[in-house]
Amino acid sequence: MLKEDRLATALIKAREKRGWTHYSATQRMDGIGHWTLRTLEGMNPDRDTRGIDCRLKTVVEIIRVYWPDVTLDDFSETPLHFKLVAKNATSDRKLKGFMKATG
């Protein structure tokens, strides 16, 4: 599977899992329009859908909103030698509880 397909699939599944439209999903993201999200999901045939060309701000905002369903690995074409983690113990406990509750 191409990374582009992997990113599009992860974005679509994460958005649908939450029951959000493109518009409602981007309302939770700072500075990202719904057309950007539609393009990354492969729904804009006139634009390049490659997530590897995204600005860092876009990548971080999408991961912040869709975590843990969309990760940094979904945006990369090569294996990464680092990972994103919760910034404090409270956030880490919330994340573990969320992952346990949602699978």
Blueprint of the fold:
Elements: H1 3-18, H2 22-26, H3 34-40, H4 56-66, H5 89-102
Description:
This protein is an all-alpha fold and 103 residues long. The protein has one domain: 434 Repressor (Amino-terminal Domain), CATH 1.10.260. The protein has helices spanning 3-18, 22-26, 34-40, 56-66, 89-102.
Briefly characterize the structure.
This protein is mainly alpha-helical. It is 51% helix and 0% strand.
List keywords for this structure.
mainly alpha, 434 Repressor (Amino-terminal Domain), 5 helices, 0% strand, globular
CATH third-level topology: 434 Repressor (Amino-terminal Domain)
Shape designation: globular
**Known CATH architecture:** Orthogonal Bundle
The total tally of domains equals: 1
Give the full name of the CATH homologous superfamily.
lambda repressor-like DNA-binding domains
Low-confidence stretches: none
* End-to-end CA span: 23 Å
Strand content: under 5%
Tally of separate helices = 5
Order of helices and strands: HHHHH
The chain-level mean pLDDT equals 79
- Strands, total number: 0
What structural class do you assign from the helix and strand content? mainly alpha
Main sheet makeup: none
Highest CATH level, the class = Mainly Alpha
Whole-number radius of gyration?
A: 14 Å
